[in-house]
Design a protein that fits this description.
339 residues, alpha+beta, eight-stranded mixed sheet, four-stranded antiparallel sheet, 10 helices, 14 strands, globular
Length: 339
């Protein structure tokens, strides 16, 4: 087995193996730059005046409804914690292949998985190496590098705190009680999955993809990355390239947020494109309910005539199994449970 990183580091790579050549790389029909990406000042949400907090909650609701995506600034995660997390994950990918190899070819709910592409049963692979770690409610971490455990535990704890506050704001924006999502989705004991993606330089970026258009499975995904761009989201039917502000956290709504809100807040389709110059590193934490929680539209957001339930109930575990065992394509997984 090889990694994309190992393939690139062999040197003098002028083409890519056929398994990485995509039959049709999505056209990058980029929306005009006049579009302003929603930016949320987290400090005004947590310590602002009542009026400031009310405005931020309104803005979060608008971002969830119109974009499914927003950028959070002035949040509670220290810059040093973010920087250390990026360095620690980079150090993991720098390990020898046999050291990382103990986590390769694991099953979906195994504590730690490392690999290349997406699904080894598929004919095509994506131009990325990944590390996926279940970090909550039971914390896990690879043995090496030695600093990874302490750093990732601190970062993931901080990310959960930010997510919990965002869940409160989203609940209120929907006209629900502030603790609604945290309580109904059992967030305190809920699932948090750390997903680290490494996208090495690709000699043929026009025929490869880091990750194809897809939506995330959870409620919210929080993302940080190095200074190399590559994330694109769909807005108004076109791709918008995201250039994060320094020290910001990117947040997108997932399929389970769309299910819970009965379609009021829709999950956002996004993709990762690659380049031929620099390595992109992204660190996401997917926040969801407990694995055995059956998620269906909130009764308060269902009206038999005007807003009938749009999705059937499904456990988070079952949904993740369906998503990970099928082709990663747009909202194809969510389409399976539409009523």
């Amino acid at each position: 087995m090889f990694s994309v990183k190992g393939l690139v580091e062999k040197g003098s790579l002028t083409s890519i193996p056929s398994k990485f050549v995509m039959a049709s790389v999505p056209k990058q029909d980029i929306l005009s730059e006049v579009e302003v990406i929603p930016t949320i000042d987290f400090s005004q949400l947590t310590s602002g005046t009542p009026d400031q907090r009310s405005k931020v909650i309104h803005d979060i609701g608008s971002a969830c409804r119109e974009w499914g995506f927003f950028m959070v600034i002035n949040h509670s995660v220290p810059k040093k914690v973010m920087d250390d997390m990026l360095k620690a994950t980079e150090s993991f990918f720098d390990l020898a292949e046999d050291e990382k190899g103990e986590y390769r070819n694991k099953q979906l709910f195994d504590p730690i998985r490392y690999g290349t592409g997406f699904n080894v049963s598929m004919e095509k692979a994506f131009w990325r190496d990944y590390l996926k770690v279940h970090v909550h409610p039971h914390f896990n971490a690879p043995h090496k590098p030695h600093e990874f455990r302490e750093i990732s535990q601190e970062y993931c704890k901080r990310a959960r705190e930010v997510a919990s506050e965002l869940f409160r704001a989203i609940s209120i924006s929907l006209g629900l009680e502030g603790n609604y999502i945290n309580k109904a989705m059992e967030i305190g004991e809920g699932s948090q999955l750390l997903v680290v993606n490494l996208y090495p330089p690709c000699p043929k970026p026009e025929i490869a993809i880091g990750l194809p258009p897809h939506s995330d499975h959870g409620l919210l995904t929080l993302l940080i990355q190095n200074e190399v761009s590559g994330l694109q989201v769909v807005h108004k039917g076109k791709w918008v390239t995201i250039s994060p502000l320094p020290n910001s956290i990117l947040v997108n709504t997932g399929d389970h947020m769309e299910i819970l809100t009965n379609g009021r807040y829709k999950s956002v389709v996004h993709q990762a494109v690659v380049n031929n110059k620099a390595t992109r590193l992204s660190i996401g934490t997917a926040h969801g309910p407990t694995l055995d929680k059956t998620v269906r539209p909130a009764p308060e957001l269902v009206d038999g005539e005007s807003f009938p339930p749009a999705y059937r109930g499904i456990t988070y575990r079952e949904y993740m199994e369906v998503q990970q065992s099928n082709e990663l394509k747009g909202k194809s997984c969510l389409d399976r449970i539409r009523i």
